Amino acid sequence: MTRILVAAIIITTIAKPAYAYIDVAIGGLILQALIGGFFAFLVIWRDWITRLKNFFKGKGFINDTVSSEEKEDAEGQSAENDNDAEPEDPVKASAE
Prior knowledge:
- By secondary structure, the chain is mainly alpha-helical.
- The chain has one domain (24-95).
- It has helices at residues 2-14, 24-56, 68-83, 90-95.
- The chain is elongated and about 95 Å long.
């Protein structure tokens, strides 16, 4: 471990400067990636915290981040889709 550390220190102190620069476009790209990564981390963190809370409440690892309104909307849409089924054929219904 100390050999690796010593080698890393020697390599970084001996290296010549690259004389490179970061222009505005690359700087903006790096900034955008950092901001996007930060917010992606926040979303994942919130999801895992919610799962851990649910686990310790005895609900298991379920994801309970969907609001009750969204659940009701989803249930209403599935009920509407059931009503969109093909109507019965009136000829067949009268023949029976």
